[in-house]
Structures are given as C-alpha cells and as structure tokens.
Design goal:
The structure holds 2 protein chains of 2 kinds. Chain A is an all-alpha fold. Chain A has helices spanning 4-11, 13-44, 54-64, 75-94, 110-130, 134-165, 170-180, 186-202, 221-224, 230-255, 266-293, 302-331; one strand at residues 67-70. Chain A has 12 helices and 1 strand. In chain A, helix 6 packs across helix 7, helix 8 (186-202) runs antiparallel to helix 10 (230-255) and helix 10 (230-255) crosses helix 11 (266-293). The longest helix of chain A has 32 residues, at 13-44. The model of chain A is unreliable at 327-332 (pLDDT under 50). Among the domains of chain B are: 280-563, no CATH class; 590-633, no CATH class; 637-679, no CATH class. Chain B is built from 25 helices and 5 strands. The termini of chain B are far apart. Classes of the chains: A mainly alpha, B mainly alpha. The interface between A and B is large, with 87 and 86 residues. Strand 1 of chain A pairs parallel with strand 3 (568-571) of chain B, so a sheet runs across the interface.
Chain lengths: 332, 680
C-alpha cells in the first residue's frame, strides 16, 4: 500500500498509456457530443439539422484562418486560449471516461478539477477585459458573478459524493458507488439535480446563457470571447465543448457508474466505451429537450436559478450527514 | 541528513537574539536620516535585511532540526528576567516575519525616495519601522507574559506612528487614532487573559502558566478575553473596523508588513493561548472560531469586492484570509476535542500553511500596489487602466499574487484551501450530529468565499492592468527601481514554490502540531515529494508538480503546432461602427461588481442616488449623475450606538465645567472637606 501511487507511476506504463489514450479520446469526441445535441435540438424544433460532424468542420475552418488581434491586446489575451485549453485538457485527463483504475486520476481530485475550471475562467475573464471594449467587461463581470455562485454549488455536490465514498478521488468514488450496488439515497437525488443545473449554467446553455446568439442583452460567455478569432477562437470553442463533455461524463459516471471498466481487459473496456456513449447520448437528448422547452432567463433572474441549485446541493449534503451517516453508524 | 545530527546543542543566545538586535540597530541608525537620507536608504534597510535573513535562518534551523532554544535575557525587572524561547511554532512565525522583512529591505530604499522631498520626516519612518519589526520578533520570542506584553505594545505603538505617518491628511490621523484605541482595548483584553492564568501560580513565565489548573468557567473567560484581544488584532469580524482604515493609509511596505505579518503575529498569539497555555481546548471554542471565521471570510470578501480603493480592497481581503485561517483553527479544535488528533493536526497544518501563504501573497500584492501608487499616485481603481503596457514586471507579479490569493492551482493559495476542505470533509468521523451539519455549512461558505475572491481579483487585475487607461496622467508612468522589482519577484517566486512543492513544506511544518497536539501527519508525504496525500492515497491526492508539467506540456504542444504555421494580424478593435472605442466605454470597477452588489444586497448599507436631467422638449436625458455610498454595516450597528452613548455621558459630565474659576475653587474646597471628613 505504501507505494501505491509511485507503483502506478513506474510499474504501470500500460495504465499511463491507457490514460493518455482516454484523454485523447475525450478531446477527440467532445465536438461530436456538441454536434449530437445540436442535431437533436434541431429535430425537436422542426428545423433541418446540420450533420453531426459540423463542429469538426467549424473547428477546422477556424484553425485554418488567421487570427486577428486588437492592436492594444496584451500577452494575457494571446496566452489565454492556450491556458484555457491546457487546463481543460488536464481536467479531461483526470475524469474517468471508460475505465476507473487509471493512474491519471490520482494527479488531481475533484476539488482540483473545480480549481482547473476556476483557473481557465479566471484567464478568460481577464482576456475579456483586455481589449477595453464594453462587451468584454460585461461578459467577464457576468461570467464571474454567476461562477461565484455555481462553483460553491458544484463543490457542495461533489462534497456529498466525497463524503459518501469518503474520498475525493473521482476514480475511487465511482468504484465505491459501484460496489455499494443500487441504494436509493435521498442525498444523491438532490445532488444530481443540483449538479445538472450547475452544469447547464457552467457550460452556458439555456436557460442561463444561449450559445447560439450574439445578442447584447443575453450574452455572457460569448461576450467575453467576442474579440477572439481564428485559431484562438478554435481553441476556446473546443475547450468549451470538452467542458460540456466533462460535465456530462461526471454526471453519467458518478450517478450511474454501471458499465464503466473497473479492470483493464479488452471486454471490459469495450463495454465501458459502449456504456459511456449510450449514457452521453441519452444526456444529450435530455439537454436538447430541456433547451427546447425552457426559455432563457433574464440575467438578474439567473442568480435565483443558481441559488436554487446551490440550495439543492446543500440539502443533499445535509441530508447525507444527518440521515445517511447516522444510519451507517447505527448499523455498525 | 547527517549534518543535522552533528548539531545537537541548541542555538547560542546571540544568534537567537540577533534579528531583534539588528532591527533595533536599524531603527537607531535611521534616526540620523533627517540629515543624511542615505543612512536610512542604505544602512538602516541593510540592517533590516540582515535582521530578516537571520530570522529566517534561525527559524528554519529550529524548525528543521526540532531543537528548541530557551534562555534568559539580562533585562527586565530585578526579580523577573526576560525569558525567551524559540520552538517550532514560534520559529515558523519567525520565518514569516523574516521573509517579509527581507523583501521590505530590498523594496524600501527605492520606495522612500517618494518621501525624501515631502513634508514628512524620514527618521520617523525608519525609526518606527525598525522598532515595529523588533517588536514583532520579540513577541514571537517571548516566553513570559511580561515580555510578551511589552513586545506587543512596542509592536502596536510603533505601528500606530507608521499608520499616522502622513499625518497632514485628516483621514490618516483618524485611522491611526481608531487603530490606537482598538489596539489598546485588545492589549487590555490579552493582559486580563494572561492575568487569569497567572493568578493561580503568581508566576509570569509561560512554563508555569501552562500548568495553571483553571475551572471551566475561568478557562472560558480567558479564552473569550484572548479571542477579543488577538481577534481584534487579527481583524476578525465584528472587531475588524480599524483594519480597513489603518492598513491602506500606511506607506505600502508598512501595509505589507501589517497585513502580511502583524496579523499573523496575532494568529500566533491565539494559537499560543488556545493550544498551548490553556491546555486542551474545549470543543465550544472550536465552534466559536469556526462560526466567526466563516462570517469573517464571507463578509471580508464581500466588502473587498465592492471597494474601489486598491489598498482598502486588499485590506478587506486580508480580513477574509484571516477568516480562512480561523476556520482551520476552529476545525482543528473540534477534531482534537472529539479525539481525532490526527485530523486536528491536518486542520492546524492547513491553517498554518494558509498563514504563511497569505503573508507571501498579500505582502506581494501590497508591494505591487506600492509600485502602482508610486508610478501613478492613484489608488482609485476608476482612474487606472491599461497599466500592463507601462509596468510589465509589476503586472506579471501582481498576476501571480492575484492567482495565488484566488486559490487557483497550481499556486500556493490553492494548497491551503484544499487542505482546509480535506479537513472539513472528514466530518463523518465526528459523532455529534450538530457538528456534522455545522462543519459542511462552513465548508459551503468557504467555497463561496473562494469563488467570490476570484471574482474580486479579476476585477482588480482587469481594471488596473487591462483595457485602456481611464485617466490621462501628466507624468510618464515608469516601472519602479530594481530593488522594488526584486522584492516582488522574491515573493512571487515563493508563492510559486510553495504551490508546487507543498509536500516538502508540510514535511517540515508538521513538527508544530506534533508539539501542540501530539500528532503529526505521517501520511502527507509517504508517497514522496511528488504527491500530497494528507490522509491516505485513496482518500485524496494532489500532485502539483505533475499538474504544472501537464499544463506546460499541453501549452508547448499547441503553441508549437499553431504558432509557427499560422499568421496573426493586428487591427484596431472593432467599434461596432460608432467611430472610436473610447476608454469611457469600458466596464468600470463599480459596474463590474454591480451584479454581486445586487445579489448580496443585505450585506452592506447602500445609498444609491441617481439624478437625471431631462430635456423638456425632447424628453431625452441630458445628464445623469450617479452616486453610490456603501457603508460597513457592523460599524453602524455595533459601533455607532456605542460612540453615541459615550458622547452622551461625556456631555453630562461636561455640565460641571462652567469655565468659572470660582466654581472650580468651590469644587476643590468641597473635595478637600470630604477627604478630611473621610480621614477623620
């Protein structure tokens, strides 16, 4: 046990290889999820849908174009896309996608994951203020305001899971939940709802933000990145797609971890791949349906929405420490 | 390490006392600065630097080798020599004082140029700076209540003169007076707390005070008084009101010392009293500290967020960080009182780590603020902007400070907040249902605080350094002298190192809880320096070096892939077809914080005033005037009635003053008569 982590580091090159492969896969199929959601949404709204690989085409187009930067942009503006993309890829690397027992999950636990999102958001908000246009500052202010409510809500949600599994390591949490079998926990219901609401707010979807518009009154995320173009924009867009997928995978694998590979055999990995694709496809349909049914909230109504999410997560946490812990100690 | 074993004897007394001596010498040398300013610039700051470096050296020696020093100084009262002692806890704080003093000694010589031609005396500045540092060092070294109180008063009084240094401005005088008043009240409370401990044995040394057998009631009273005294100095809400007034008005290096170090000395006092002198802490103290810390952290950052004065904002953010440290201490007490000493050690290490981190990044931010102030003579955020082009170095170091204070990986602020969260997540091991509910609530508040502080520092950085200048300065804005840049670079580098190698640091400082609680954290470093695993590898792990490595490698890969092949074009920003983009179109600092201000409205007392003049014919508004006044609610609720009461009493007493000499003679006559009657 003593050299658990170092053992993983040295003796398991296969594990690291798989971790790298999994991260690569994560990054590669993230645009596909966005394309899938867009397609389902179009279908639900009686529109003709773009092909599912449209996001790849958009990214390719953006990567090929030259970047146009304002004359007064500082180095913060130019490095931000790389930092945002780098931290998001790293975040993707620590979230178990197909298999749980991979060494990369030990680098960062779920609190660090929230920290990665905060880091990339910090730089995005700075970049929004860099040029000195009204839109950028507006976007930064709104994004940071909403994030200062969503981030604690998300932490509350993951704390509940962490307390249930008595670990903050994502991989171990999933294994613990798997090993306990199907138990109806009131805390999980609250937290799953809360985390879904947080995910919607954090990834800039309806009802908090609308990724499809560039309208002044509704913009949050888009306002911040309005000045970006070319490869810079491509990296930010891609990072955003990865972030959406991270939230999807988190919800899918934490609350319904069944199917994920706990051992590194070919069959288990195959089942894991199919399971996660099915789960994400289902979540995508739910998101598309939610976005079709709901209307976007006014900005100053958004805090109510997020406070509700925060409250749900807190309720989950409290119902866990009050109801479930006592029961487990009584059993003991 | 073999060479450690060879040195089994403790440090000689001259080495231990040398930092104090050098600081005192520096203050004496500085007295001559009214004639020769080079004395202060070169000699006094050099001595201060020596003091800082020697404090770091002797502190680290004691901390790493874990060989405490105890001795007596041939000073003090005839029957009471001054006892000094240097053990892991005090040496840890000695290192904090030393680090900041060293940075100041490099920063100061260039910074005081600003005062050379001004109306204020350089001797005063140098004399009290040296005395201030010496006072703080002595507080840490003191091993009896007598020396402790003397050193505490030296620290308080010398910093009073530093706060009031630019005394021609009325705000500075008022701030200094408020500070003096509250510092004396606090000192009185500490004195009373000590006297409760002394009363049982009648001896002033900490060694005998530790053995005092207090009844629970007296222990509670002693804790309450100590919390009042040390909490006042540390700026815990609601006894914080002096802090946001006093810290901003002092010269910037002094603000760095006050926020970075003096608040930590107060935390040291609290730890010394609660964990050491009072014996085993009672669990209710943990609850009090936890609640007070959570409120302090949240309110501190909320008040910081809406400030538009840079140094005032930093001062409020210091209050927030003191709250986070207090949360850690409260958790530590709760775990210890419930028999989980290992978790108590974890929470204490989190608190101590945050104390060290806060000293570094707040010192850095205040020094950078000083550079901005010297370059622009402007503290108001609304008049700054675009400084990243004029002050590239300061901008870079300030960014490091902002990232660290916002608790973002892979910098140091994140590590201590992560450790605090890890400690808070261990609540299921507690048996009390109330505690199990209270601790997660405070963790929720801590999460909210961390997120809000990121928002606050995006505002600070974005408004000061990014965008376009909001104000045309008549003078050119230049990067400060090298000494000031080096000081900032030193602190920024430490912030980075403490963020990347937390395991090494925790390996060193875990002797402190071992002495105070009886437990250290064996699991934290058992996986090697690469991994931080506070409880065990399965529960939680974090590898800051690998995180940094991964971010850098992804960055390199993509930068290499994209930069060499693709072109970049520079154009003026698009102005939406309205002509030019003027600096007035940017978001202001007030506007940036406005959504937060709307959401958390009850936290402040806000007076908004909108005056609109409309053109009668067209009904279009011609001018709009917007005024915003934000007041500290605690001042209005807790202090204003008190001040009013004192004023009423003073007015009643004032009635006997008629200004007529015959009345006063009559008073004396009757007083004498009464006294004579009493004697006979």
């Amino acid at each position: 046990m003593a050299d658990y982590l170092n053992g993983l580091l040295i003796n398991l090159p296969l594990g690291w290889l798989l971790a790298g492969l999994q991260t690569f896969l994560f990054i590669a199929i993230a645009p596909l999820l966005t394309g899938w959601i867009k397609r389902k949404k179009c279908r639900l709204q009686n529109r003709i849908a773009p092909p599912i690989w449209q996001p790849y085409r958009d990214l390719r187009k953006l990567f090929r174009k030259e970047s146009v930067i304002a004359t007064n942009a500082s180095w913060i503006f130019r490095t931000t896309p790389y930092i945002v993309f780098g931290t998001t890829v790293l975040a993707a690397g620590v979230v178990p996608l197909i298999a749980t027992d991979l060494p990369s999950a030990a680098i960062a636990d779920v609190i660090v994951l929230v920290g990665f999102f905060a880091l990339s958001r910090f730089f995005l908000a700075l970049a929004g203020m860099d040029i000195g246009t009204a839109f950028g500052g507006m976007g930064s202010s709104r994004e940071m305001t909403l994030a200062s409510l969503t981030e604690p809500a998300m932490l509350m949600a993951v704390f509940t899971l962490a307390m249930t599994a008595s670990t903050t390591n994502l991989s171990t949490t999933m294994e613990v939940i798997l090993s306990q079998g199907i138990v109806l926990r009131p805390s999980f219901i609250f937290v799953a709802l809360g985390l879904m609401m947080v995910a919607i707010a954090e990834t800039g979807r309806i009802p908090i933000d609308n990724p499809a518009t560039h309208l002044e009154l509704t913009m949050i995320h888009e306002a911040m990145i309005l000045e970006y173009s070319g490869r810079h924009l491509a990296m930010i867009e891609w990072a955003n797609q990865i972030k959406l997928m991270i939230y999807g995978v988190l919800i899918a694998n934490l609350f319904i971890p069944w199917g994920i590979a706990t051992e590194l055999t070919e069959a288990a990995l195959l089942i894991g791949s199919i399971a996660i694709i099915a789960k994400l496809a289902l979540l995508g349909i739910i998101l598309a349906a939610a976005e079709t049914v709901l209307a976007k909230l006014r900005l100053f109504r958004a805090p109510n929405y997020i406070s509700f999410a925060f409250l749900l997560c807190l309720l989950g946490l409290l119902s866990h420490v009050i109801l479930e812990v006592q029961q487990s100690t009584l059993k003991n | 390490m073999d060479w450690n074993l060879a040195l089994e004897t403790s440090l000689p007394i001259n080495v231990v006392i040398f930092p104090v001596f050098a600081a005192l010498l520096s203050s004496l040398v500085a007295l001559g600065a009214y004639r020769f300013s080079w004395l202060l610039r070169y000699l006094a700051f050099l001595l201060l630097g020596l003091s800082g470096i020697s404090a770091i050296a002797s502190g680290s020696w004691v901390l790493i080798n874990d060989i405490p020093f105890a001795g007596e100084l041939p000073l003090g009262l005839p029957w009471l020599k001054w006892h000094i002692r240097l053990e892991p806890l005090s040496s840890f704080f000695l290192i904090i004082v030393g680090l900041l003093t060293t940075a100041i000694s490099s920063y100061g010589p260039s910074y005081i140029r600003e005062f050379e031609s001004g109306p204020y005396s350089l001797s005063t500045l140098g004399f009290f700076t040296g005395l201030f540092v010496a006072g703080m060092l002595l507080v840490l070294l003191a091993d009896d209540a007598f020396l402790f109180m003397i050193a505490w008063e030296i620290m308080s009084l010398s910093s009073y003169f530093l706060v009031g240094y630019q005394h021609l401005q009325i705000t500075h005088r008022r701030a200094a007076f408020l500070y003096l008043l509250m510092a004396q009240l606090g000192a009185l409370a500490i004195l009373l707390a000590f006297s409760i401990l002394i009363s049982s044995n009648g001896d002033f040394t900490f060694a005998t005070m530790r053995q005092a057998e207090l009844s629970p009631l007296w222990a509670h009273i002693a804790f309450g008084l100590g919390l009042l005294g040390f909490g006042m100095k540390a700026g815990l809400i609601p006894i914080h009101v002096w802090l946001p007034e006093a810290h901003p008005v002092a010269p910037s290096p002094i603000s760095a010392l006050m926020s970075g170090v003096m608040l930590k000395v107060a935390i040291y006092g609290l730890i010394r009293l609660v964990f050491d002198l009072l014996g085993t802490p009672h669990w209710s103290w943990g609850i009090i500290l936890l609640i007070m810390g959570s409120i302090t952290a949240l309110m501190g950052i909320l008040y910081a967020l809406i400030q538009n004065n840079l140094k005032r904002l930093l001062a409020y953010s210091s209050i927030e960080n003191m709250g986070i440290i207090t949360i850690g201490l409260g958790l530590s007490i709760l775990f210890i009182a419930n028999g989980h000493s290992l978790l108590g050690a974890l929470a204490m290490i989190a608190a101590l780590y945050h104390a060290l981190n806060h000293a570094l990044f707040k010192g850095l931010l205040f020094l950078s603020a000083g550079s901005i102030l010297q370059a622009t003579h402007e503290q108001n955020l609304e008049n700054l902007g675009g400084l990243i082009r004029y002050l590239p170095y300061t901008a870079f170091f300030f960014l490091i400070g902002c990232l660290a204070i916002s608790g973002l990986p892979p910098l140091n602020g994140f590590v201590s907040e992560w450790l605090t969260f890890q400690a808070a997540l261990q609540t299921p091991s507690l048996t009390s249902g109330v505690l199990r509910a209270v601790i997660p609530l405070s963790a929720a508040l801590l999460a909210l605080t961390a997120a809000l502080s990121a928002t606050g520092f995006v505002k600070v950085y974005g408004v000061i350094f990014l965008g376009q200048p909001r104000h045309q300065f008549n003078h050119s804005i230049q990067e400060p002298a090298w000494g000031m840049i080096i000081a900032q670079a030193f602190l920024a580098l430490l912030c980075l190192l403490l963020g990347i190698f937390p395991t090494t640091i925790i390996d060193i400082i875990e002797v402190i809880p071992q002495h105070l609680v009886g437990y250290d954290l064996p699991s934290a470093s058992e996986q090697g320096w690469l991994w931080l695993t506070p409880i065990s590898a399965e529960v939680a792990s974090y590898s800051a070096p690998l995180v940094l490595l991964a971010i850098i490698s992804v960055w390199f890969v993509f930068f290499g892939l994209l930069y060499t092949t693709k072109k970049t074009r520079r154009t003026p920003p698009w102005e939406c077809g309205f002509g030019t983009v003027s600096p007035r179109m940017q978001y202001t600092a007030t506007a940036f914080a406005m959504p937060i201000q709307r959401i958390f409205k009850p936290a402040w007392r806000i007076e908004e005033l909108v005056k609109e003049q409309t053109d009668k014919k067209t009904l279009y508004p011609q001018t709009i005037r917007y005024e915003l006044h934000i007041a500290d609610r605690f001042w209005l609720i807790l202090y204003e009635p008190f001040i009013g009461l004192i004023a009423i009493i003073a007015r009643q007493i004032g009635r006997i003053q008629t200004g007529n000499i015959r009345t006063y003679l009559a008073y004396s006559f009757f007083t004498l008569l009464i006294l004579l009657w009493l004697i006979t």
